[in-house]
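ARCHIVE CARD
Drawer: 12
Card no.: 0347
Subject: one protein chain, sequence and derived structure
Cross-reference: see card 0346
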Amino acid sequence: MNRKATFGLILIIFFAYLSYGQTERDIIINDSIYPIIHESENYQNVKNKIFELEKIYGYEAELKYSLINYSYQYNDIEFFKTELTKLVKNYGFQLIYLNGRESYYKSITKGELAEWFKEMYLKNHFFWLKNNFDKQIDLKKLNDIKEKDQLINKYTRQIWNELELDSTQKAKQNNLISDFYFTNIAELYEITKKNSNYPNSKNFALVQNNLYVAEIHNLQAKSNFKRYWTLFYSYFKKAYLNNEITYAIFKSYDQMSFVHFGNQRFGLLEINKIPEIYKKENLTEVPIVDLEFYWKIKNEFNWK
C-alpha cells in the first residue's frame, strides 16, 4: 500500500457522509445514526432511530453491537444487558472476539457484571451453538480476516519505511502486497459462495471483527479492483436488496474507481462535494462509465 492507497483512505473519510443516491434505510443509518452514535446527548435519539428501523427491517444486530458500547458507557445498564443477551443467544456474539478496549469489557470479565455475564453467556452461547454448530469454523475464519489484514498492513508500512527500494522493487512489492490482500479476502469469498449469501447477521451470524477495511484494501489495490468486484458484486447486490447491508460498499467502489480511473459506475460521487485538492484538472463532473447501467441500478436499488 502506497500513496495511492493513502489517497483512497482520505477520499473515503471526506465522502463518509454523503447522502447522494441512498434509500431511506441508508439515510437513517449513514446520516442519522453512525455520525452521532458516540455523542452522549444524542444517545436516546439514536436508540429511538434504531427501534424505528427495526419495525420495518427486523433486528439490526450490527447497529446494536455498536450501540451497546455506549449503552454501558452512558449507564443504560438494563438495555445493555437485554441487547447483549440477544446478541449472544441469536447472533453468535463471542467473548473471544472482543479486543479488551470496549467500555464494558472489564465489567463483564472482572467487574460488577462478571457474575451476571458468565451465567448469561454460558446459557445463551450454548443455545446459539446448538442451533448453529456448523457455523463455528466459518465464523472464526471471518473474524480472523481483519486481524490478518492488520498484519499485512503493519508489515507493509514497516518494509516501506525501513527499506530503500528502487522503483522496480517497489512495483514488485506492491504487487505482492496486493496478492496478500486478495488471498486474505478469498476466504470470505469461499464462505459467501458456499452459503450463496454475503455473510452478515441477518443471514449468517454477527461478525464482530468488521470486514470492511479488508474489503477496502482490495479496492485500493488497483490490480485487485476488478477481480475483487467480479467475485463479490452479485452477492453485494443480493444482500443490499434484502436490506442486509447499506450502500457503503457501492460508494467505496465509486470512490476507488475515481482514484484508479477517474470515473464512477454507481453515480454516488458529486463533483461539488469532492475537495478541490483531489479534483482532476478541468473536471466539471465525475464521469459515469455506463449510463444505461447507472439508470437501471438506480431504479433497482430505489435510490433517490
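Annotation on reverse: Residues 167-195 form the longest helix (29 residues). The two ends are 35 Å apart (CA to CA).
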